[in-house]
Design a protein that fits this description.
CATH topology of the largest domain: DNA primase, PRIM domain
Number of helices: 7
Helix content: 10-25%
Strand content: 15-25%
Structural class: alpha+beta
Distance between the termini: 34 Å
Largest sheet: 4 strands, antiparallel
Shape: globular
């Protein structure tokens, strides 16, 4: 069934921006899936002339809510290392039961989350009264998740929840991880997923979210007093690349040593113009060379 195009009033767009946007960088979900995987992917949209990443605007959010595009919102503002929300993503078998259990225990702590159902599970959102440090919120949520025995995706655990923000803090120039912006169209399912507790109407949904009690700094401080990030969920430091790496036959060839043009990041890849093609006058689009980007903090 084709999703009807909705027309959000300016107040809904403004409330959405206030509630969900931590920074102006954003991602877009592809309109078409990759042929090899049949999965839609996310990428950083860029200005075609400058190659610079586009900034999120009220018009971008309007298009997202109308269903024209689907955006991903980043979890941390790097200028403050803070965020307006925590989102727990679960899309494995019986994951909805884990989200409901987590929601109940959050309520026991005086935290009232919002459940956004999805195709296989859902997203559980916790909103802040003001942006709060990502590390402090991870201490609380990750500790509660492990205490309840809910699986966390990562390492040998192939299925489990994912907690956004995924990082305690961002290094300069990094973006962290983005999650699909709520109330838009999930391209793979061709469907809009709604929050529990309100009618399937954009204004009523935003009204419901705005009315939820928000976690404040004093409440969070009480909940994490004397606690730290569980060791198994602590973020490891990225491995430093050795200055010299050699094969048995001699020095290792590194393509990055031969690139003079500026790299731009799309997903987990660095994109630029191939130097060999440039010598022959090819690759003027500047995107015919791709190198893998270490995904500790996905730009």
């Amino acid at each position: 069934m084709r999703e009807l195009r909705l027309k959000p009033p300016p107040t809904v767009v403004a409330h959405y921006f206030h509630l969900f946007v931590n920074r102006r960088a954003y991602t877009l979900q592809s309109s078409r899936p990759r042929p090899e995987s049949a999965r839609h992917y996310y990428y950083r949209p860029t200005d075609k002339k400058t190659g610079q990443g586009l900034c999120l605007t009220p018009d971008t959010i309007r298009r997202h809510l109308e269903g024209e595009i689907t955006i991903g919102v980043y979890a941390i503002n790097p200028a403050t290392q803070c965020s307006k929300w925590v989102a727990i993503d679960a899309d494995y078998e019986d994951s909805l039961a884990d989200l409901l259990k987590l929601s109940f225990h959050l309520g026991q702590d005086g935290v009232e989350p919002a459940l956004e159902k999805s195709q296989r599970g859902g997203h559980l959102w916790i909103f802040m009264a003001e942006p709060l440090p990502a590390r402090d919120r991870r201490i609380y949520v990750c500790g509660l998740v492990l205490r309840l025995g809910i699986p966390v995706k990562g390492g040998k655990q192939r299925e489990g929840i994912e907690v956004f923000p995924k990082h305690d803090a961002l290094k300069p120039g990094r973006y962290g991880n983005a999650i699909r912006g709520p109330l838009g169209i999930q391209r793979g399912a061709s469907q809009r997923f709604w929050f529990d507790g309100a009618d399937e109407d954009l204004e009523k949904q935003m009204c419901c979210l705005n009315s939820l009690p928000k976690m404040n700094g004093d409440q969070l401080a009480r909940l994490i007093a004397g606690k730290a990030i569980p060791p198994q969920l602590a973020q490891p430091e990225p491995k430093a690349e050795p200055e010299i790496s050699r094969h048995a036959s001699g020095p290792e060839f590194r393509i990055l040593d031969h690139i003079n043009t500026k790299l731009r990041t799309v997903g987990h890849n660095n994109i630029t113009r191939c130097p060999s093609c440039a010598e022959e006058g090819h690759g003027r689009s500047g995107d015919n060379l791709s190198t893998f980007h270490w995904p500790v903090t996905s730009p």
